[in-house]
# Entry
Amino acid sequence: MHSKGLTRRILAVTAASATVVLALGACASGGTSGDAGTARGPITIWYSNNSSEIEWGKQMVTAWNADHPNEKVKAQEIPAGKSSEEVIGAAITAGNAPCLIYNTAPVAVPQFQKQGGLVDLSSFKDGASYIEDRSGDNAAQYKSDDGKFYQMPWKSNPVMIFYNKDMFTKAGLDAENPSLATYDEFLATARTLVSSGAAKNAIFPSPTSEFYQSWFDFYPLYAAESGGTQLVENGKATFDDATGVKVAEFWKTLYTEGLASKEKYQSDSFADGVAAMSIVGPWAVPVYKDKVNWGAVPVPTSAGTAADKTYTFSDAKNVAMYSSCKNQATAWDVLKFSTSKAQDGQLLDLTGQMPIRADLPTAYPAYFTANPAYLQFGDQAARTVEVPNVSNSVEVWQDFRDAYSKSVIFGEGDVKKSLAGAAEKINQLVATK
# Structure
């Protein structure tokens, strides 16, 4: 299982459970720690437990170990637990986290940093320059508020609108050039899908209250409508404006008219034919290959932004180095090796997820020629918006989700007032260090 499905399992935590034990909170997460910053020797890493990333991880470790007999990497899947965040937070507190974890959610980085659990990658001589050269303009979104990097931008799954071509054809719609670019077009198409009987639901984002669910309904469309604005910028909530209200009202219309369901669905509504559309990333290409005759288009905007100018949510997973690591010089070299052009190519080939690398389609022309279904995702990867790297980040998203759920999904209260109330709470959370 990859990104969206993986995210739902990895991040199956509430705001309360994300505030893991802060016993190490007094320890500032600064640069490399003492002699560990220059020490070399064996290290341990954790990677995700989905099959394609395990395959990538194993070949990467084998390649490294073959040339570094005195600095061998021992790798394992991240231990089982309620969520990866809880497992990692507990390991930080216990002081036994591995050197590198290839499954670090950006939303959790501020919390891990506050625990004193992360190494500042900028403290390596070539740290900041390597990250910025590899990831280009996207790198800036992954800096912490002190201007340093505590995470390596690694891979993204830029989300788009997947649609079921067979359902569109059944509804009498153009399945090759669907009318989905503007809000008005999208709503008209959604109404036709449902009224024709072709689909029970036009689209079915999860209506549940977990903090991360807004990444797959409101946030991609807000990124697109705003031209690439994060939920919080410069210490202030951004969504309490005409743009945010416009996006929220669009979704409210879908719920009010019964075009999107307010009921929880236990499986994948798109794969099961319960919905004609879904907001997902390239992880879904192999998942839906034999289940749905699908197409994909950028998320809509009110005026219909051109595809090559449309932003979306990144749905990234990154790599962090943990401060309990005793051989940080080796860990840094392994981190660079694993995010090299060659290994990024292996990641792309084995998982179909997009390395956070500048000019991705140009860097791997042979891959995108051989796999044309991924080309639009490779192009979209250049225009992604990450979750803001701010204090109390999980609580920020939970407050937003609570307000959104009440006013947008369930239609209780005024949308504008609801967003304003959430913005006020979020501004207080972000200001609390």
User: Anything to note?
Assistant: Residues 51-67 form the longest helix (17 residues).
